[in-house]
Design goal:
Helices cover 60% and strands 1% of the residues. The protein has 284 residues and is mainly α. It starts with a helix and ends in a 9-residue tail after the last helix. Helix 5 (92-106) runs antiparallel to helix 6 (111-123), helix 5 (92-106) crosses helix 11 (200-214) and helix 5 (92-106) packs antiparallel against helix 14. A hairpin with a 2-residue loop joins strand 1 and strand 2. The protein has 14 helices and 2 strands; from the N terminus they run αααααααααααββααα.
Amino acid sequence: MAEDAMFSEEEQVLMQAAKVAGDERYKDSPLRDEFMYLANQYKRLLRQVRRVISLSDKQQSSLSFELELAFESFIRTLVTTIDAKHKFTAGHSARVTEYVLFLGNKMGFSFEDMEVLKYAGLLHDIGKIGIPDAVLTKNGPFSPEERLIMNGHPALTGRILSGIRLPRNLREVPHMAECHHEKMDGTGYPYGLKGEDIPFFSRILAVGDVFDALTSRRDYPKYIDGKTLSAEPMSLYMAFAILAKDQNIHFDPTVVSVVLNHRTEFETMYQYLHANQAGWWLES
């Protein structure tokens, strides 16, 4: 369809608007100025639509790519701001994202699924923006009341993301992100989902999230089999052992098997991410 034919009705509307605006009968109408404003806005919008349509396929593709880059840059900046509220969680979401993308790649995910996994990883802790600083940045173990508050952040993540008009291909991200603390045996939170009821991408997030928490410095001590350890990073050997031991309890064995089958590469990624945590991903 030729462009002139495509917009014939819109052009007729503008011609009719011009006739009305020039009609002496409406010269003194109190609505004339508002009518003219709306007509000019309509004309401006039509001109912009024509300009976009007139772009070549290559130009449209370039524009789409630029918009995608701008969107990802905004999300990464937002996530960094939240993570940086506490010095020990700075870079956490970016590292988790790299771990889960590694797993998705090894499992043969499509480009579209990798995009969903990427944004679920980046945004999984955005609910922490609603946690009081006195709890979020506390130096030391949480009290039972504080733990309850902290455990509310996944549900907050879901509510916050559900209120954002995400691109169509990312509409499942809110639910995937809010379920990253669910466990295979149903003892997780916020919904107590069990096994296959937990979105598969959330099960991938759970592995990446816990692995980074275990192998990074935190304010609070780490616990294994009822024993209290230090808050220092856990050894990779022990972290992998926990993933293996907690299969079918906390973690999906399908996901854990991918980690263990590619353990050397996973360790290399860990070393790189922590060696360059001062801002490596800002360049990506």
